[in-house]
Amino acid sequence: MATLRVDEIHKILRERIEQYNRKVGIENIGRVVQVGDGIARIIGLGEIMSGELVEFAEGTRGIALNLESKNVGIVLMGDGLMIQEGSFVKATGRIAQIPVSEAYLG
After folding, report:
1. How far is CA 88 from the centre of its chain?
2. According to the model, what pLDDT value does residue 2 have?
3. What is the pLDDT of residues 16-39, one digit of tens each?
4. Strands (E), the chain
5. Which of 45, 90, 93 is nearest to 66 (CA)?
6. Domains and CATH numbers, the chain
7. Which residues, 6 or more positions from 105, have their beta carbon under 8 angstroms from its beta carbon?
8. What is the pLDDT of residue 100?
Protein backbone atom coordinates (compact mmCIF):
# COMPACT_ATOMS: atom_id res chain seq x y z
CA MET A 1 0.00 0.00 0.00
CA ALA A 2 1.42 3.34 -1.06
CA THR A 3 1.58 6.15 1.44
CA LEU A 4 1.61 9.85 0.67
CA ARG A 5 3.79 12.26 2.52
CA VAL A 6 2.54 15.62 3.73
CA ASP A 7 4.60 17.51 1.14
CA GLU A 8 3.12 15.35 -1.68
CA ILE A 9 -0.43 15.99 -0.45
CA HIS A 10 0.35 19.70 -0.21
CA LYS A 11 1.70 19.72 -3.77
CA ILE A 12 -1.35 17.88 -5.14
CA LEU A 13 -3.78 20.20 -3.34
CA ARG A 14 -1.88 23.29 -4.51
CA GLU A 15 -2.03 22.11 -8.16
CA ARG A 16 -5.76 21.40 -7.92
CA ILE A 17 -6.48 24.81 -6.40
CA GLU A 18 -4.48 26.57 -9.11
CA GLN A 19 -6.37 24.67 -11.83
CA TYR A 20 -9.79 25.49 -10.36
CA ASN A 21 -11.81 27.81 -12.58
CA ARG A 22 -13.57 30.35 -10.37
CA LYS A 23 -15.57 31.99 -13.14
CA VAL A 24 -18.89 33.14 -11.75
CA GLY A 25 -21.51 35.10 -13.64
CA ILE A 26 -25.06 36.29 -13.30
CA GLU A 27 -27.47 35.77 -16.17
CA ASN A 28 -30.94 37.16 -16.72
CA ILE A 29 -32.99 34.08 -17.65
CA GLY A 30 -36.71 33.64 -18.29
CA ARG A 31 -39.16 31.00 -19.51
CA VAL A 32 -41.41 30.88 -22.56
CA VAL A 33 -45.11 30.88 -21.64
CA GLN A 34 -46.53 31.37 -25.14
CA VAL A 35 -45.17 31.41 -28.67
CA GLY A 36 -46.89 32.03 -31.99
CA ASP A 37 -47.10 34.37 -34.99
CA GLY A 38 -43.50 35.48 -34.56
CA ILE A 39 -44.00 36.63 -30.97
CA ALA A 40 -42.94 34.88 -27.75
CA ARG A 41 -44.25 35.78 -24.30
CA ILE A 42 -41.63 35.38 -21.57
CA ILE A 43 -41.80 35.47 -17.77
CA GLY A 44 -38.82 36.02 -15.49
CA LEU A 45 -36.85 38.62 -17.45
CA GLY A 46 -37.29 41.37 -14.87
CA GLU A 47 -34.13 43.32 -15.71
CA ILE A 48 -34.48 43.36 -19.51
CA MET A 49 -34.34 46.59 -21.53
CA SER A 50 -36.53 47.54 -24.46
CA GLY A 51 -34.74 46.60 -27.67
CA GLU A 52 -32.44 44.13 -25.91
CA LEU A 53 -31.42 41.01 -27.79
CA VAL A 54 -32.33 37.64 -26.29
CA GLU A 55 -31.30 34.10 -27.17
CA PHE A 56 -33.58 31.09 -26.87
CA ALA A 57 -32.28 27.71 -25.73
CA GLU A 58 -32.48 26.26 -29.25
CA GLY A 59 -30.52 29.17 -30.76
CA THR A 60 -33.17 31.53 -32.15
CA ARG A 61 -32.64 35.19 -31.32
CA GLY A 62 -35.21 37.85 -30.64
CA ILE A 63 -35.71 41.48 -29.62
CA ALA A 64 -37.57 42.53 -26.46
CA LEU A 65 -40.17 45.12 -27.44
CA ASN A 66 -43.23 44.84 -25.22
CA LEU A 67 -42.22 45.19 -21.56
CA GLU A 68 -45.22 44.47 -19.34
CA SER A 69 -45.33 43.99 -15.59
CA LYS A 70 -45.89 40.22 -15.74
CA ASN A 71 -44.29 39.23 -19.04
CA VAL A 72 -42.13 40.42 -21.92
CA GLY A 73 -43.08 40.29 -25.59
CA ILE A 74 -40.21 39.17 -27.80
CA VAL A 75 -40.22 39.56 -31.58
CA LEU A 76 -38.53 36.48 -33.05
CA MET A 77 -35.72 36.87 -35.58
CA GLY A 78 -36.31 33.51 -37.19
CA ASP A 79 -39.15 31.06 -37.66
CA GLY A 80 -39.12 29.93 -34.02
CA LEU A 81 -40.51 26.51 -34.92
CA MET A 82 -38.33 24.76 -32.35
CA ILE A 83 -39.21 27.10 -29.46
CA GLN A 84 -41.46 25.36 -26.95
CA GLU A 85 -43.41 26.59 -23.97
CA GLY A 86 -41.31 26.14 -20.84
CA SER A 87 -37.97 26.49 -22.62
CA PHE A 88 -35.38 28.97 -21.36
CA VAL A 89 -34.52 32.40 -22.76
CA LYS A 90 -31.37 34.35 -21.89
CA ALA A 91 -31.03 38.14 -22.11
CA THR A 92 -27.74 39.08 -23.77
CA GLY A 93 -27.35 42.54 -22.27
CA ARG A 94 -26.91 44.01 -25.77
CA ILE A 95 -29.31 46.41 -27.47
CA ALA A 96 -30.18 45.66 -31.12
CA GLN A 97 -28.14 47.86 -33.45
CA ILE A 98 -27.87 48.46 -37.16
CA PRO A 99 -24.59 49.90 -38.41
CA VAL A 100 -24.94 52.98 -40.61
CA SER A 101 -22.57 53.54 -43.51
CA GLU A 102 -22.48 54.43 -47.19
CA ALA A 103 -23.21 50.76 -48.00
CA TYR A 104 -26.74 51.06 -46.55
CA LEU A 105 -27.69 54.06 -48.67
CA GLY A 106 -29.86 53.33 -51.72
Report:
1. 9
2. 64
3. 998 888 887 888 999 999 999 999
4. 29-36, 39-43, 52-56, 61-67, 72-77, 88-95
5. 45
6. 29-95 (2.40.30.20)
7. none
8. 79
